[in-house]
Structure prediction request, 218 residues.
Amino acid sequence: MPGHGAARPDQQVPPELLRPGTVLPTLPKPTMPAGFVSASLERRLGARLIDVAIVGALSIVANAWLGYKYVAALMPYVREAMVNPQTEVPNDPQLTTLLYAMIAISLVLWFAYEVIGTARNGQTFGKRLVGIKVVRLDGAPADFGSSFRRWAVMAIPNLFFPCCAPVQLIDVLWCTWDKPLAQCIHDKSARTIVVSARPTDLPPPADRPVDDGRTSHD
Prediction:
């Protein structure tokens, strides 16, 4: 019986690839869809800061009552620690529950803001203000599936708050050295790119790929 992983007769490696010094073929590098212009890093940063400010403000309003309850439950431990600096904060189930409830509410708001907006026209409010948009690698409009995958990679680390900060920082900075598409990790996971939405930077309507309404599973 052939060993585990042995090649079947119809899957033999071509002899020319086994010669010493042979350079194996490489996969083609992704390219920018025809007619699109990559969004500048400055505009992408500006859009993200606007979006973070909006979602943050909405989260503060939505979590006002839970935040008050959290602070009220935390203050006895703070007062005790001020009297005795050696005091350790106990693992209070109430504090943990309130914290994750606020995180859950914030994620729901972020989902509604980011995923639905991006799936509708490739833009959040911040992206619309600075003139950029999200499209799929083939140039077709972002659909719900790609918008959700893009958001999920950014959102899931928040479940491990506050340890999520380094992961999210690496994600958003990835586009600064990624070539040639300047993708963040969340773009790579969803097979999307961020392009300029200015009319002069977009291909003519007749040349743009048409979204067939099906979710991309690439």
